[in-house]
Amino acid sequence: MLDKDANGAVPCWTVVDTPQADILEDGTDSPAAPYITTGYFTLYCYQQYNAAIAEYWVVYDNAIVLAPPAAENVAPVLTEVQPADFAAFLPVSTQIGFQVTDDKDLVNEKIQVVLNGEAFTTANGLTVTGTGTTRTVRLGGLKANVDYTAELRAEDAEGLVTSRTLHFDTFASSSFVVEIEDYNFDGGAYFNLPVRTAEGWGQADNSYVDRVGIEGTDFHDTRTAPAGANTPYRTFDPVRMARTRDQQRPQFNADNYVYDYDVGDIAAGEWLQYTRQFTAGNYEVYLRQALANMLSGESVLERVTGDPGTPDAPAQALGSFLGERTGFQYRNFALTDGTGQNKVVLRLEGLTTLRLRQVTPDPGDGARLQNYLIFIPVADPGKQRATISAVSPANGAEVHGVAPQVTAAIQNRDTSVQVATVVLAVNGAPVGATVTSTAEGAAVAWALSPLPASGSTVTCRLAFRDSEDVELATEWSFKLVYTALDPANRRSGPGQDRGFAVRVVQAPPGSNLANSLDRAEAQLAPNSTIPKEVDVEAVADVINQTQSAGAGAGYFQAPEYPETVVPGLEEGLSGTDDFAVEIGAWLDLAAGSYRFGVVTDDGYKVTSGTHPKDTGGTVVGFHNGGPANETFDFIVLQGGFYPFRMVWYERGGSAHAEWFAVNLTTGQRVLINDPAVARRDGHGRRPPFFGWPPFFRFHRPRTSHDFCPDHADGQRQPAHLRRQRAMRRPALRGGGGGDGAVHLPAGEGSGVRVVGGFGSCACPAAGAQLPGAVSGALPGSGGGLRGRAHRPGRGDSAVGGREASTTALGAGRFSAGPGAGTTEVEGASETTSRRAVLPGARAEIGRGNRDDPRGARDGRGGDGGGGAGAEELEARSAGPVALPGGAADSRAAAGHHPGGGAAGRRSCL
């Protein structure tokens, strides 16, 4: 594009529409399939909503579409197509017509129309006129009361084919129609042949306008109250509806405020109930609806067998309406068996109550608009045998998930199913499905395991014999798509101390940054040009954060789940807006299926790459823009420690974040790394948990931020950060310097242990394990909090400096304090005497750490104790750890002694 107002400058707009889910300006990319492919070219213009802008306009001077060089032969082109696609109530005199043009002479016999599966050519009724490179095609002879699918096809002299599909019907305008919005009211009351009356004038005789339905009896909706403009026809009910975009029918007249309505904004499990008097006969049933930005959608028609005036009356499934994506065009979808391959014919007579139940929910960025049910009389089909009335996943569906269940319902009709003969085969092999006898027939269920590769097509075949010993079988298929972590990124064990490494960057008050993930990443990036008011790091046991003390939000709230304030936020100083949070950890995951969840205000992104700071890792879940409350699934093919990175951000208003796991069986949510989970998860494990005093560290903002800074410069921090540090606000609890582990049993969402930090330098090969990580004597080995590598007068902190990553597998110098001397400690020894290290520390460090808690944050008071004191060190001497505090097993540097954390930034373990 060229910007004509800027002398033809090329705007800096680049759009790459990939097959994967793209991070859009506000929300997710669903469906993920590219919108820009081949064929017709259309430009859309969208405006980010701004109430201050009354209107806007765009002029497209021209568009240049880049394409590969044209082939020597081009397929035929179809134009002047009639009737209009999705047309309804057409007279039987309607003709199908179109024109074919090509760059070479056409042959009449290679032009055809396939009408409801029957092919028509010039040999059996198709009329083709014209010569050379142009032909005009006509087909008549349509029948009344038929729903048609017509495929128009033309093949050129070299075998290239062009086709186009039309949907239309020739239903009589006098057909029995039930408007979706005309569901029962007053606990089973109904009008059989209602009149259409104007919107906004209140109740009228024989009209459904403003009639009040009874929840659970006349309808079931997940909302509990009407919503003004979203309930214009039944203003006292919560059922969402809107004026239809479908073609206008004669009984509606917008000039007199008599509108046709759609029911939409549909959630799974919702239903509407209709009582009507039917003339005895056999009927095919069609649901008129549009599916915008939805690949498919299933609704089930049921016959109410109980009293329709009572709550949740029992009902019998009759068949399914399996909708397919149409955009905002409306199409008839027939009532079929569960696979969608066989129409269901209903025998109806007299007073009958039908229930339309929704199986598929509308996506957040899509819509299903349901207009009416139409009943078309057909000939008696004869004996109707037991049928498969419902299957899941639906035929042709694309299933996203890690725990798919294959289910089916067999419905008895004139014959019944022999339950013992039911066999389910998946991809050609019989499986041990659970088959249960029901009052209506049988139910079949099987958990798909093991999972085939993502993107695979799964084919199911269900066979059984009916009560007359006739064998019946149905086959359907679906596509399985899921996210899997790359086993190449796993490690066998980077450490044992627990904790998330957290970094918070905040812009100065009044910055009014963009509300997007792009801004958050730019704010967190090295060499960021966004000014920093706050740049802090901390270690968190769990991610349950809020911007203000006591501001509860989400699923996990005080007193059972006390939230922590986002590190560095100070309402009276830097405020609580325009910040971004980066969280890193190694998660110990067994092979299997997982479901994680995030609640944030504003958006978030969770990725897994090669290390916890990898900004280009696989995206497992994200939400751009405003608040999020979402779950996302993924697969672990091989167990091990996997790096995870989470980003969340805040523009303005309230702010909070929770990161949790969900039990795939029970649905229970647990905060990842919750120390109490092991007591509740039934595995008999209680992961190690270290609950030393709360602390967090602040770091001087830098123009070029280095996640492994060397604080040997001794420069003082900005005044507002010194004030915050002096307040010693308990924002987070230290958890092993952020180099702990998160143990998460596959598929259970509990028993979680975090392996921490942003350690990303000097990484050993995947699966390697340094002796220090095993024995607990590898100083500074795991991404702990940064410390001052050499602070004059406070002892030699070589354990926490760069030297730790270069000494022989964990050997380092530990200085207990001023004048205490230095003792060499071998990294691989679990029997290292603490007393060899501690004597000089007992008087100095123990006193220093209890009397001056800042020693725990700053690494002051020497390296032997760091936040515990010598007495506490002695008490822990029986454990498998050479020194408390620090990273990996050693805790010598980054736990009680966060001063050792600098090396942790330089070695991954």
* Helix vs. strand class: mainly beta
pLDDT averaged over residues: 74
Helix content: under 10%
Radius of gyration over all CA atoms, rounded: 34 Å
Number of helices: 10
Task: Please describe the biggest sheet, giving its number of strands, its sense, and whether it closes into a barrel.
Answer: 9 strands, mixed
Q: Calculate the terminal CA-CA distance, rounded to whole Å.
A: 50 Å
User: What share of the residues does DSSP label as strand, in percent?
Assistant: 25-35%
Number of strands: 44
The geometry reads as globular
Structure description:
- The protein is mainly beta and 909 residues long.
- The chain is 7% helix and 31% strand.
- The strands form nine sheets. Strands 28, 29, 32, 34, 35, 37, 40, 41 and 42 form a nine-stranded mixed β-sheet that branches. Strands 30, 31, 33, 36, 38 and 39 form a six-stranded mixed β-sheet that branches. Strands 13-16-15-14-17 form a five-stranded antiparallel barrel.
- A hairpin with a 6-residue loop joins strand 43 and strand 44 (822-825).
Defining key terms:
9-stranded mixed sheet; 44 strands; 909 residues; mainly beta; 31% strand; 6-stranded mixed sheet
